[in-house]
Amino acid sequence: MAGTDDALSPLLRAVDGARDEASNLLADLVRFPTVNFGDGHAGHGGVPNGNETPCAEFLRDWLRHEGLAADVHESAPTRGSVIARLPGNGRAPTAPPSNPSLLLMSHLDVVPVEDPEAWPHPPFAGTIADDTVFGRGSRDAKALAAASAMAAAIIRRAGVALGGDLVILAAADEESGGRFGAGWVTAQPDLAVQVRATAALNEGGGASVRLPGNTVAYTWATGEKGRYEARIIISGSSGHASAPWRAQNALERAAEVIARLRDAVPAIDTSHPTFRAIADAYGLPAVTAANLEATITRLGDAGRTAAGLMRGASRCTVVPTMIHAGIKSNSIPSGCTITCDVRTLPGYDTAAVTRHLEEMLADLPWVRIEVDETAISNDSPWDHPLRDAAAVAIRRSSGRDDATLMPALCAGFTDSRFARAIGVPTYDCAPGDWRDTSPDTGVHGTNERIPIDSLVAMTRFYVATAVTYLGVVGGSSKSS
Ligand SMILES: [Zn+2]
To answer: How many angstroms separate the alpha carbon of residue 416 from the centre of ligand 1?
Structure first.
């Protein structure tokens, strides 16, 4: 690990010097309309669904031009993912990791644009203006793809030999579940071995949280909630709407179900490390199920982010999002289906979700429940050498000595679960600039954008984490 500190300062300066290069790379990636409409969708305007391959090939060529080993792997025609590697120690790329190795994860697909007219810059133009890169995917998650590629290139250009491999996975298909991206990659033995690092960083964390005393923390998500789709199928009996007493209106029965979902009191679990960290940061007593709401009230407006973290990490949620009933305005519907979005804490599976809903609706004999798993809740250990390294790296990369990592449980789900499933402890943390705190980033909405300061901050963090976690074994003589 000798020379880690000495190696880092010039690398961070090199990242700052590559500001325009990084933003141009991101803008170039944004210009590929890698829109993922979801499974089974043919695509749009003659462009196949996702169509990540042209973008993946562009990134591969950029990485190869920097002297990095990079390849595109297609799970299906047009569904390409990039795997790249900056080898440390000269070790064979396919050998199982014996020394630390770090995987930087991102994805190249993006969600659709609802109304392009509402965007100040065309969503796929890759416009750079006002020190900002605009466009769909500029944050989610092409910023991570650009930052990880830039980080590897900067380390390679400097001729710094890392003590272990730095691996990049820029995957297809994250936005519709990853079956054609990270899910596929990790299921192919020859590819899984390439991405099976000793630890990984991914999207889903890194938001900056302002703490008392004007200090700053970045969310470090150790896991993600599970996601299920539950359908509550209600049966009644049909009839003419002019004689409602002869029918059992399934819509009216649905009203009872929806009221129960709304009024259900969730079981509160405060075991995640986020609760202790927040209590410590704010000088509050330990958070328990009994005092959670009072704690949130005490935090007030200034603690809104911390409150959100605690709410999310403390409970499973069941939220009705779609309802389907009826075929004609003068016919009483005999059936009604309520679809719910269910987010679970670690430890819950399909059977537990089904049981939970059955108990809630136990006395309603006209109800049937179907539950489909989208993503099972998953997590990695809080104590891990990557966290120690990242805690150092965030101070160095942000330039703030008071910067810390705030444990979090990501409420959404990402490709991290695929990496965790093949034994890679994975942490969601892609921090931007600490001043970049607006909740309106346009992610999955209108006018997605990222300040170039945030792109640079993320690249600095990746470089600092790689150097700190993997260590430096060589000098800084130019290698090419
Ligand atoms: Zn994403």
So the answer is: 11
**How far apart are the CA of 236 and the centre of ligand 1, in A?**
41
Band (156; pLDDT cuts 50, 70, 90): very high
- Residue in the block written with tokens 């960290």: 277
d(CA 200, CA 101) in angstroms, rounded, equals: 8
Half-sphere exposure of 116 (CA within 13 A, CB side): 9
Task: For residue 267, count CB atoms less than 10 angstroms from its CB and return exposed for 0-12, middle for 13-18, buried for 19 or more.
Answer: exposed
Q: What's the mean pLDDT when you consider all of the chain?
A: 93
90 pLDDT more than 80: no
Mean pLDDT (whole number) for 35-42: 87
Per-residue pLDDT at 3:
56
Where does 203-344 show beta strands of DSSP type E?
Answer: 208-211, 215-224, 226-235, 239-240, 317-325, 331-332, 335-344
**CA 36 – CA 49 distance, rounded (Å):** 6
Distance 383 CA to ligand 1 centre (A): 25
Q: Looking at the DSSP assignment, which residues form a beta bridge with residue 220?
A: 407
**Total-model pTM:** 0.90
pLDDT at 303: 86
**Distance between CA atoms of residues 253 and 335, nearest Å:** 10
Domain residues for the domain of 315 are 225-375
Q: What is the dihedral of CA 393, 399, 401, 404, to 10 degrees?
A: -50
- Would the pLDDT of 335 be above 50? yes
Number of domains in the chain: 2
Whole-number Å distance, alpha carbon 170 to ligand 1 midpoint, is 11
Q: Closest Cα partner for 178 from 186, 190, 189?
A: 186
Say if 318 falls within a structural domain. Answer: yes
Distance 272 CA to ligand 1 centre (A): 23
Q: How far is the CA of 442 from the centre of ligand 1 (A)?
A: 12
Greater model confidence, 301 or 57: 57
Joined together, the tokens standing for residue 182 give 């990270």
**Ligand 1 centre distance from Cα of residue 476 (Å):** 35
Token pair, residue 102, equals 């770090």
Residue with the bigger pLDDT between 177 and 395: it is 395
Nearest to 192 by CA among 167, 173, 174: 167
Considering the domain architecture, whether residues 156 and 277 belong to the same structural domain is answered as: no
Tell me whether residue 478 is in a domain: no
Cα 146 to ligand 1 centroid, rounded to whole Å: 14
**Domain end point (choices 327, 359, 375):** 375
Residue 217 resides in a domain = no
DSSP per residue over 178-234, as a string?
STTTHHHHTTSHHHHHHH--SEEEESS---EEEEGGGEEEEEEEEEE-EEEEEEEEE
Q: Report the CATH number that the domain containing residue 255 is assigned in CATH.
A: 3.30.70.360
- Is the pLDDT assigned to residue 426 strictly greater than 90? yes
